[in-house]
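Progress note, sequence design subtask.
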C-alpha cells in the first residue's frame, strides 16, 4: 500500500449495526473493501470489535476519545469521508479534505427551540468545513439548500445502495397471523405515518393482516397499539418490534404487498427492498419516495381510509394480473446497489484529490 493516498472512512455507526446507519456502514464498508485501486487505500474508523471485519484489503483505526477530542494528536489522512452528519469524528487538521454525507433533515420537524438551533449550528459548521457535501436524494439536496448556507458549495447526489439478505427455507415467524399478509418496516415514530394504516385495515376484507416491524421504543408505539386494540384489530395488525434479517426476508417474500405511508424519508429503503423481491409497493407521495420509486410504486393521493382501501384492492388486482411486473420491479431495484455506490465514491475521492 506504500505511496497510495490514504482515505479515512468514518464507520463509527457500526456501534449499532442493526439500525439504518449501522447497515449503511456494514454494506458500504463491504463494497469499498472489495475495491483494488492502485492510487487509493482505505482506513476504516470502526469500533474495536469490527477491527479486521472487512478483511485485509483495508487498514483500521479504532474509535477513541483521543480521536474524538484531540484529533490533531492522531495520524493524518489525505481525505476524510463520513457517512452521516451526526458523527463526532473529524480529520486531524482543519484544512484536510473532508467529504460529508447528509442523509436527511428530518430533525427540522422533530426538534424546536434551543435544541433545533444547536443542531443547525453544528451542521452548518460541518457544511462550511466540507469540500464536498453529498446527499442521498435530490429531495434531501433541496432541503439542504433551503435550510443551510450553501452558496458556492459543491453538493452531489449519490443514492445509497439496498441489500436484501437471502435465506434458504426461512421459517414462518411465530408472530405472523394467518391471512393475506401486508408488510411494512421502520422505526415506530410519527414521521412514518403508520397510524393511517389502522383505519385502512379496518376497510379491507378481514382476511388481510398487517405486520408493522421496527423499533418500538417510545410512546408512539404504545399509542398505536392502543388504537389497534380500541378498533378490535389486535389479531390483524401486529407490531413485533425489531426483527431478524431472516424474519424480514420471510415477510417480504410471503407478503401480498408492502405498504409505506411515510412522510419523511431521506431516501427510504423498504420500497426498494420490496421491489428487489418483486413485491408491489403502496406508498405516500411525500419527501423522496416518488423520486426513488418513480412510477414503479402505487401512490395514495390522500389518507382517507375508504379511498386507500379501494385504491389498494384495484391496483393489487392489476399487479397480480401482470406476470411481467415482478421482474420489472427487480430490474429497477438494481439501480441501487452498494457496488455502484462504492464506485461512485471512489471516483469522487479521486476527483477531489485530483488524481487520475
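Output:
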Amino acid at each position: 500500500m506504500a505511496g497510495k493516498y490514504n482515505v479515512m472512512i468514518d464507520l463509527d455507526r457500526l456501534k449499532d449495526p442493526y439500525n439504518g446507519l449501522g447497515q449503511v456502514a456494514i454494506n458500504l464498508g463491504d463494497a469499498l473493501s472489495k475495491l483494488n485501486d492502485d492510487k487509493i487505500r482505505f482506513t476504516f474508523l470502526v469500533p474495536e470489535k469490527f477491527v479486521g471485519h472487512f478483511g485485509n484489503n483495508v487498514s483500521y483505526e479504532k474509535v477513541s476519545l483521543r480521536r474524538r477530542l484531540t484529533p490533531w494528536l492522531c495520524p493524518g489522512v489525505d481525505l476524510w469521508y463520513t457517512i452521516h452528519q451526526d458523527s463526532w469524528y473529524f480529520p486531524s487538521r482543519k484544512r484536510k479534505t473532508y467529504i460529508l454525507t447528509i442523509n436527511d433533515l428530518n430533525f427540522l420537524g422533530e426538534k424546536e427551540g434551543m435544541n433545533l438551533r444547536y443542531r443547525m449550528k453544528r451542521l452548518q459548521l460541518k457544511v462550511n468545513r466540507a469540500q464536498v457535501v453529498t446527499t442521498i436524494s435530490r429531495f434531501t439536496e433541496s432541503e439542504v439548500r433551503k435550510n443551510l448556507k450553501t452558496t458556492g458549495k459543491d453538493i452531489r447526489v449519490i443514492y445509497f445502495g439496498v441489500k436484501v439478505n437471502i435465506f434458504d427455507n426461512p421459517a414462518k415467524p411465530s408472530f405472523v397471523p394467518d391471512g393475506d399478509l401486508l408488510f411494512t418496516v421502520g422505526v415506530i415514530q410519527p414521521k412514518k405515518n403508520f397510524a393511517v394504516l389502522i383505519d385502512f385495515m379496518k376497510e379491507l376484507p378481514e382476511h388481510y393482516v398487517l405486520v408493522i416491524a421496527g423499533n418500538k421504543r417510545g410512546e408512539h408505539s404504545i399509542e398505536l397499539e392502543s388504537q389497534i386494540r380500541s378498533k378490535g384489530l389486535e389479531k390483524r395488525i401486529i407490531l413485533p418490534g425489531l426483527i431478524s434479517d431472516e424474519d424480514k426476508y420471510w415477510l417480504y417474500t410471503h407478503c401480498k404487498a408492502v405498504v409505506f405511508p411515510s412522510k419523511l424519508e431521506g431516501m427510504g429503503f423498504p420500497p426498494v427492498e420490496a421491489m428487489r423481491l418483486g413485491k408491489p409497493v403502496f406508498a405516500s407521495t411525500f419527501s423522496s419516495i416518488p423520486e426513488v420509486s418513480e412510477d414503479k410504486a402505487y401512490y395514495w393521493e390522500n389518507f382517507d381510509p375508504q379511498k386507500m382501501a379501494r385504491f389498494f384492492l384495484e391496483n393489487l388486482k392489476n399487479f397480480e394480473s401482470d406476470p411481467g411486473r415482478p421482474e420489472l420491479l427487480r430490474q429497477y431495484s438494481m439501480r441501487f446497489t452498494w457496488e455502484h455506490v462504492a464506485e461512485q465514491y471512489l471516483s469522487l475521492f479521486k476527483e477531489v484529490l485530483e488524481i487520475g
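The first strand starts at residue 5 and ends at 10. Work on this subtask will continue into the next period as scheduled.
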